[in-house]
Design goal:
By secondary structure, this protein is an alpha/beta fold. The protein is built from twelve helices and 16 strands. β3, α5 and β4 form a beta-alpha-beta unit.
């Protein structure tokens, strides 16, 4: 019976998507915001109404909102152990005494948008009440709470049924009439369970989607994610309204150096990735803030043409590589990246960018904020170990 119902949902969604679906008008550039998971995880003693409100206020006070960050997203472990007497989700009454609508109203009062998390299964990844069997009423509940961004995980679900599940949930979200960015996790579970992934289909039902293991605050974690993006050629599926999500940022969580965090941020921008901060916004160093609010790098990520960048070449002996993406103004954003143990010269050629070698171009360093050129044929820079140089190359 369940399979029949979900199959019907796919049919209905194929009709509805011509009106709503991906054409919900949302996430035309990669979403920018903050999420509680990377820093707070499921530490319920810290996941409180006051903490969440403090993070929202810090997003405004720090200047992050001015450069494009807008979503404040509550991840797993916000729930009460049981649904209410009407079968509706409810927050933990001690940690969130005023309820979720109160939180959303506060976030909106700051000019920001509110996001929330749930799971397709009987319980969330953290063990709290999941959405299985309640998709429609839960979607209605999010709309009543004025949710703007909905992240749907897939723990404890049957991975072979996720196409139907994510379609069905998306249909119920659309039926509420409330615009909500729809963040999906189906590709991650397809990857983990070694199942085929229908990429052509997911771009019609989700605004963004996770595809790989969770990020950790280590160099090896995010560079592993980066390699998966490259070797799987996931850039084919990204564009306005539908984005690959390599996971939230770890910038500022303390496990990496300043240069490593700059490289992390630079490459997420080249990937046209959602820029969702995962640190404590109320206790940031100036270095962390300088990375998260670098407008020139953010402008690359938010380029309206929405082309995800790719790796042009890689030298596994030296640990050096070049990534690039074309921008709407006909320039190219380029990252010269060094994973090696020593500084190394890294070069991008005009030919690799599809430009005539005789063309002259100006170079803008997006971190040092310095201009050079015009130059022809190529651009080279010395890149420190575990670091990146990010430039914008514009033809004269």
């Amino acid at each position: 019976m369940r399979a029949t119902t979900l199959s019907l949902a796919i049919l209905l969604f194929s009709v509805a998507s011509s009106v709503l679906g991906l054409n919900n008008g949302l996430a035309r550039t990669p979403p920018m915001g903050w999420n509680s998971w990377n820093h707070y995880g499921c530490r319920t003693n810290l996941l409180t109404e006051q903490m969440f409100m403090s993070q929202a206020k810090a997003m405004v006070d720090s200047g992050m909102a001015k450069v494009g960050y807008q979503y404040i997203n509550l991840d797993d472990c916000w729930l009460a152990p049981e649904r209410d007497s009407q079968g509706r989700l409810q927050p933990d009454p001690v940690r969130f005494p005023h309820g979720i609508k109160y939180l959303a109203d506060y976030v909106h009062s700051l000019g920001l948008k509110f996001g929330i998390y749930e799971d397709t299964g009987p319980k969330t990844c953290g063990g709290w009440p999941g959405s299985e069997g309640h998709y429609k009423i839960d979607a209605q509940t999010y709309a009543e709470w004025d949710v703007d961004y909905f992240k749907l995980d897939g723990c404890f679900s049957n991975a072979t049924q996720m196409k139907e599940i994510y379609t069905s949930y998306g249909l119920y979200l659309n039926q509420t009439g409330r615009p909500m960015v729809y963040s999906c996790s189906w590709p991650t579970y397809a990857f983990v369970h070694q199942l085929p992934m229908d990429w052509d289909y997911i771009i019609t039902i989700c605004n963004l989607w996770r595809e790989y293991y969770d990020i950790k605050d280590t160099w090896n974690s995010w560079t592993d994610i980066l390699d998966y993006q490259a070797t799987s050629a996931l850039n084919r599926w990204a564009g306005p309204g539908h984005w690959n999500d390599p996971d939230m940022l770890e910038v500022g969580n303390g496990g990496q150096t300043f240069e490593e965090y700059k490289a992390h941020f630079s490459l997420w921008a080249i990937l046209a990735a959602p820029l969702v901060a995962g640190n404590d916004l109320t206790n940031m160093t100036q270095q962390t803030l300088s990375i998260l609010t670098n407008e020139e790098v953010i402008n690359v990520d938010q380029d309206p043409m929405g082309v995800q960048g790719t790796r042009l070449w890689q030298n596994t002996t030296t640990g050096t590589e070049v990534w690039a993406r074309p921008l709407q103004d006909k320039s190219h954003a380029v990252v010269l990246f060094n994973r090696g143990a020593a500084a190394s010269n890294v070069t991008v050629t005009w030919e690799s960018l599809g430009l005539a070698s005789t063309s002259k171009a100006n170079i803008r360093d997006l971190w040092d904020k310095k201009d050079s050129g015009p130059v022809s044929q190529q651009f080279s820079a010395s890149v420190a170990s575990h670091a990146a140089v990010m430039v914008k190359i514009s033809l004269v």
